[in-house]
Amino acid sequence: MWGLVRLLLAWLGGWGCMGRLAAPARAWAGSRGGPGPVLLRNRRSWVWNQFFVIEEYAGPEPVLIGKLHSDVDRGEGRTKYLLTGEGAGTVFVIDEATGNIHVTKSLDREEKAQYVLLAQAVDRASNRPLEPPSEFIIKVQDINDNPPIFPLGPYHATVPEMSNVGTSVIQVTAHDADDPSYGNSAKLVYTVLDGLPFFSVDPQTGVVRTAIPNMDRETQEEFLVVIQAKDMGGHVGGLSGSTTVTVTLSDVNDNPPKFPQSLYQFSVVETAGPGTLVGRLRAQDPDLGDNALMAYSILDGEGSEAFSISTDSQGRDGLLAVRKPLDFETRRSYSFRVEATNTLIDPAYLRRGPFKDVASVRVAVQDAPEPPAFTQAAYHLAVPENKAPGTLVGRVSAADLDSSASPIRYSILPHSDPERCFSIKPEDGTIRTVVPLDREARIWHNLTVLATELAPHGPPVCKWPSRSWTRMTTLPSWLSPTTPSCVILQPPAS
């Protein structure tokens, strides 16, 4: 009997399934016609316990996966085999007479890995149990039918430029729905399909690392790396899946500022007041953000006295401005040096410095048309009373600061001499009386004299006026004209 059982199991093993003997202490006495369970031989009547079926197996007819047999079955046709449980009657069917179990359709282990069923042998005529119900399992055996997938892909990662070789960038993880406990169907190996020689991947963990030193963001900022995961330990015939990793190099301060030219030339009119913008300088720095911020300074003393330089609100440009009043007639140009320096310096990259640069600056002061200037702001003159018309009172003088050759013309503003008591020679500023003056009637005369620069090589057109105040006193006729008789007073309000 046991030889027949073993032969049966060997035959079933050819179908990819096997039975396992158990050793229970009881048998069902009803199979011998007794009143109930009694102690019998030290072995179980059922010769099966577990079956296997290969997933995805499909054929034109139902596939035999195993056979149930009880040793109470004498082959007389009196025994009927029943099957209940998961998939009984639909997925699995049993031949009532022989106990053969067939699977009727293709199974997917990833949907359901095993089925639990109950088998029982009963008397065909009376349906009386010949054996107690016994549970057994049909396991779906895995095949490599699922490629690896990256559920979190595509990936994005950032790593600082100039990172050392082996710097960790990101870890990618693939999943394989096949059975990890059976064969190599779910044993994955990672490789780089695209992204060499810049990046590598650990074949077991999926950690992506830098593979070359000194990757420069200013040369290439972004890399597209393709990572493959292949099952069957990476061997030929394995299934594979891939994902992309977009790696962005973040900026570090590895570039010093550099002026694009060695000399900057500007011009500013002499009348520009303090704070007037003269020009902009920009040292180029290919770094980003705070790594490109700069401070500017004037190195030479003569430049820092007349001009100042500051950084604009963006931290990139140097703003050159007038610091004190300029005078074309005193100094016509300034030459000095300007330095641009990074404000944030990373000690790790000092070897790539120095993080500063110097350029020369020349500022030309432009002449501005200026009004003539009197030699005195106020003149105090005296003349005896009762002198004949045409008596000389004195002379005022003005000069053109821009050009000594420019002609000057003088005139008395009418509102300052409403009685027209005085005249002035337009060419030289000589003031004379027009009528006799009476000291008892009026002691002081306040005149406003206008000096006008004429346009060169043209008609006498007023170009720039300038004023001076002349205050005169009338001396009594008995007083010597050489005797001082006036005091210095402030000029009247215009």
From TrEMBL:
GO MF entry, a single one: calcium ion binding
Gene Ontology, cellular component aspect: adherens junction; catenin complex
Record field: transmembrane: none
Predominant location category: membrane
Keyword match Transmembrane helix: yes
GO BP terms: adherens junction organization; calcium-dependent cell-cell adhesion via plasma membrane cell adhesion molecules; cell migration; cell morphogenesis; cell-cell adhesion mediated by cadherin; cell-cell junction assembly; homophilic cell adhesion via plasma membrane adhesion molecules
Protein's cellular compartments: Cell membrane
Membrane topology, as annotated: Single-pass type I membrane protein
InterPro entries: Cadherin (IPR039808), Cadherin-like_dom (IPR002126), Cadherin-like_sf (IPR015919), Cadherin_CS (IPR020894)
SMART domains referenced in this protein's UniProt entry, alphabetically: CA
N-terminal signal peptide: 1-16
Keywords noted in UniProt: Calcium, Cell adhesion, Cell membrane, Glycoprotein, Membrane, Metal-binding, Repeat, Signal, Transmembrane, Transmembrane helix
Cadherin domain location: 70-150, 151-259, 260-374, 375-460
Entry-linked PANTHER family: CADHERIN-23, CADHERIN-24
Full protein name: Cadherin-24 isoform X2
Organism: Leptonychotes weddellii (Weddell seal)
Name of the gene encoding the protein in the UniProt record: CDH24
